[in-house]
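Sorry to interrupt, but I need a hand with the structure work. Please put the record directly below this note.
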Amino acid sequence: MGDSNTIDWYTRLIGRVPTDPGALASLGKLFARERDQSQAYHYFLESYRYYQVNMDVISWLGAYFVQNEVYDKALQFFERASQIEPTDKKWQLMTASCYRRRGEYAQAKRLYEDIHRRYPDDLESLTFLVAICKDAGLIEESNNWLRESRKLEQKIAEQKSMSPEQLLAQQENDGGDEDGFRRDDEVVRNRGAGPTARQQDRSPTEPKNSFNKSNSMKDDKKKVAKADSDNEDDIALPGT
């Protein structure tokens, strides 16, 4: 009942100031909370027309198009998000994911390689590089990425078992890069905590592809589906 009254209030407000992006976005969030995706989409898109740097609006629209499998439209919003927040690898991963889902594997591979160069400790980009190369028959390259992935998994496991003092010492030995500090600080904060939203596999799994049906391939597909669903969790529709 409260949301209904608020929707009515915002609707009257927009009748007076139809180009207010804040009011339009707020109304979009209210409709999203009511599970009215059609109306939510309408008001979020209208808000974006008048103010194209609201990250909540951009991420909602990108997620909306991913959920509806309209990846060319989703790409526009994730690329826009990457322009606004160029240091947030999440948007780059989502852009690469859209290319991969569209079947543009060469472009997706280039983007994942670029992400890996910029963020060498990102496991998701390595996981997808293994899968894409294997799918393309680039077995030697796929095996190289797989070796790097396993090394990184081991490093992450070792970091989780370290004390804060050991993590700080490792940061100093590694040069204390800013991204490393952020990652290791997060490990310290989350030690002993339950799974985060990114760690919970709640999204639909990856569709079947043309990979070889060996046991190792099945394991890699599970990793791809897990990482893909983690990316979608990052941009969950506001109000849902």
Remarks:
- The CA atoms of residues 12 and 216 lie 58 Å apart.
